[in-house]
Amino acid sequence: YSTRSMNHFMRGVLLDMNGRYAEAILEYQDAALFEPDVPVFYLSMAEYYTYLDKFDNALAKYEKYLQLKPDDYKISHLLLTKFYLPKGDYKKAEELAVNMQKRFGERTSLKLFLTDLYFRNNKIQKAVQNISGYLSSKGVSPNIHNFIVKSFISNRQTDLGIAVYKRFADKFTDNDKLFYGLGLLYIAKNDTANSISNFEKCMELSGNARYAANKLSSIYLSLNKLEKGKALFDYVGLKEKTDIADAYFYAEKDEEAENLNIRINDEYNDIALVYFRLGELKYHSDKYREAVRYFTKSAEIDTTVSETYFRIALAYYKLEEYTGALSNI
User: Fold this and answer.
1) Residue 23 is inside which H or E element, if any?
2) pLDDT score at 109
3) pLDDT per residue over 260-280, tens digit each?
4) What are phi and psi of 137, to 5 degrees?
5) Mapping DSSP to helix (H, G, I), strand (E, B) and coil, where does residue 310 land?
6) 43, 22 in Cβ contact below 8 A?
7) What's the whole-model pTM score?
8) Dist. CA 198–CA 186, nearest whole Å
9) Do residues 40 and 64 touch, judged by C-beta distance below 8 A?
10) Per-residue pLDDT averaged across 41-51, rounded?
11) Whole-number CA gyration radius for the chain
């Protein structure tokens, strides 16, 4: 590096350390005038143009930086996700993603990004070809299918998605994730019957996989089929367990709601919402002392919920213990 360019660069560093970003950019520009092939000068300009919300200027400098240093995956990814995609420049985003794939290899995130970009650029056949490897493999994560299905739906290709998933499901009949994907696609079509049948098929093939059970329980609760939702209780996650228990609570089936909350607590231990619900159930049963105990336990776990202290106060009021009521108010 030349002395003149480094003098400007270091002055820029000192200025940006003091929050004087506009002045720092001028110094970085002067540094680049003396040595136009130094990548860090353009990277510094880009970063501080971003701080100043001058995104078009930042974009131009990031692009120049990548011309000089194309092997920087982090900045390539930044350009793709924070500039091209938000601006709706899908053509440039596709070009960059293709070049990144050539340079850095077929990373899953890049491949999925490309699938969505092919859809957006109306290259439907390429999009489908790009995901065929995932659809033919049984070991693919359900999260990848979540992304693929979302790409079909967000690009108004839900019917195509169903056709593609069916084609692969007919060929790979033991791949539970294909039926999971079909269940998601049918949700987007508001076809509840087909959603249920495909999620049930996924559970059958997978041995009651949680990702399918979660979706299935949500559907059953939305249809007010509480018993069917409860039948999946052992297979679903914590959120879905509490949703099932809450459904019984709001249906005023207090005994079953209490049993389900106790089961949740036995499995997970010390969940503030579970103790809160148990407190509500005891309060509704006029068991105010027990309500105080559960609400207090909930407040010990999560001290930030003002509603919990209000409920403690109400329970103390019912017990005519006004000091406890006032201290919690």
Assistant:
1) helix 21-34
2) 87
3) 999 999 999 889 999 999 999
4) -105, 130
5) helix
6) no
7) 0.82
8) 9
9) no
10) 94
11) 28
pLDDT tens-place string over residues 216-238? 999 999 999 999 999 999 999 99
Residue that has been written with the tokens 């103790």 in this structure: 275
Of 230, 231, 238, 235, whose CA–CA distance to 213 is shortest?
235
Token representation of residue 201: 């098929």
**Tokens at residue 110, please?**
């890049």
How far apart CA 246 and CA 306 sit, in angstroms, is: 20
Whole-angstrom distance, CA of residue 315 vs CA of residue 307? 12
Cα gap 23→138, rounded to integer Å? 56
With 0-12 CB in 10 A as exposed, 13-18 as middle and 19+ as buried, what is 174? exposed
Q: What tokens appear for 270 in the block?
A: 């010390």
CA distance 7 to 31: 8
Structure tokens at 298: 């909930």
The two three-digit tokens of residue 13, written as one number: 């560093």
Question: If we measure between CA atoms, which residue out of 192, 202, 190, 203 comes closest to residue 165?
Answer: 202
